[in-house]
Amino acid sequence: MFQYLSLLDAEEEKEFFAQIYETYKDEMFYTAYLILRNKLDAEDVVQESFLPLIAYLDTMKKNSPQKNWNFIVTIVKNKAFNYYKKRKRKQEMEVPEEEWEELDLVDEELEIRVIEKEQVRLVMELIGQMDESYRDILLMRYYHGMKVREIAGIVNKTPDNIRHISQRAKKKLQGMLEEYGYFGGG
């Protein structure tokens, strides 16, 4: 607090600043701590928050305590969020060497999931281009997980007929996938 008082000339300003400091420092700390979850960081943010207040002391003298608190808490929150973002960026950049392999593994897993999603999207798109009878059978059988007998009852065909249509539809889908560069093989 004393470093801030030295920035002020008038005794009246020093007294008002000291009053603001004593009145709000604990609430400021609590606000910063809720965001940062670190005592030392919260203390730093509180100290950084007092400097901008010096420029607004004349305005704050005229305001109600509630309006002053709203102004102060806005400064504290902004400083705390900025501090948090800066700390997070720094932590992201400082990846220890032993974690590099783990990050590569995470990236590989993410890449696999993206590829799988893209493959599912392509399969669904290709199924959508098929004849209605093939499309409906494949969707009911493999997407909805229905049994051959259930499908047969819905489309008024025999279970054997559904199996044959399903085999032909899978073969057609396999050919379409091979055109896109995916390997075949049943």
Architecture overview:
This protein is mainly α. It has helices at residues 2-5, 11-36, 39-55, 57-62, 65-93, 100-129, 132-143, 148-155, 159-179. The longest helix has 30 residues, at 100-129. The protein is rod-shaped.
Radius of gyration: 33 Å
SS content category: mainly alpha
Beta-sheet strand percentage?
Answer: under 5%
Count every helix, treating DSSP H or I runs of 4 or more residues as helices. Answer: 9
Low-confidence stretches: none
The SSE order reads HHHHHHHHH
Helix content: over 70%
In short:
Helices cover 82% and strands 0% of the residues. It is built from nine helices and no strands.
Provide key terms for this protein:
mainly alpha; rod-shaped
Walk me through the topology.
Blueprint: H1 2-5, H2 11-36, H3 39-55, H4 57-62, H5 65-93, H6 100-129, H7 132-143, H8 148-155, H9 159-179
Helix pairs in contact: 2-3, 2-5, 3-5, 7-9, 8-9
